[in-house]
Amino acid sequence: LITAKEDARWEKACAIRAQHGGILGPFESWLLLRGMRTMHVRVERACENALAFARHFEGYPGVAEVIYPGLPSHPQHEIAARQMQGGFGGMLSIRFDGGVERTAQIIGRLKHFLRATSLGGVESLVEHRALIEGPDSPVPDDLLRFSMGIESVSDLIQDLEQAIEGV
């Protein structure tokens, strides 16, 4: 916002911005609008990928636990099934046998998952939260957090399989 002088109108605009937060610029507004148009498709695909991924790795050799509310084994599955209409989300966690060393080796062998802390993009991401947070982290050190994107789920499954089997 640009004004010719700092008068009462300017002060009112500043007060509104202070009370309501930052205001997007025109380009950022356009990016938001563009992304909103395809958000439902991206979220639907990420949820489908996460469920297929979780189902595949539940009980998989070398996997200690898959944590995803879409699985009947999850302690809050019934609640999630009532509340989460249209999918159980694109996030899941997997705990691996062998502790922190093996888990770090697995994440190091992944080729399709980007190592990043973010959500909701078109690309699938992975993070080893305990290593990021350090020794005081409440997150188990054998846990990887996955944020599923819209890629082919078979490619993502094959990627984690080769990482597990290669360690």
Written description of the protein model:
The protein is an alpha+beta fold. It has 6 helices and 5 strands; from the N terminus they run H-H-E-H-E-H-E-E-H-E-H. It has helices spanning about 10-20, 25-55, 75-85, 100-110, 130-135, 155-165, and strands at about 65, 90-95, 115, 125, 145. It has a 5-stranded mixed sheet. Helix 2 crosses helix 6 and helix 4 (about 100-110) packs across helix 6. The protein is elongated and about 70 Å long. The chain starts with 7 loop residues before the first helix and ends with a helix. The mean pLDDT is about 95.
Residue stretches low in confidence (pLDDT < 50, at least 5 long) are none
Number of helices in the DSSP assignment: 6
**Major pleated sheet:** 5 strands, mixed
How many beta-strand segments? 5
Radius of gyration: 21 Å
Q: What fraction of residues sit in β-strands?
A: 5-15%
Describe the protein's topology.
Blueprint: H1 8-20, H2 26-57, E1 63-67, H3 77-83, E2 91-96, H4 99-109, E3 114-115, E4 125-127, H5 129-133, E5 143-147, H6 153-166
Highlighted features:
167 residues; alpha+beta; 5-stranded mixed sheet; 6 helices; 5 strands; 49% helix; elongated
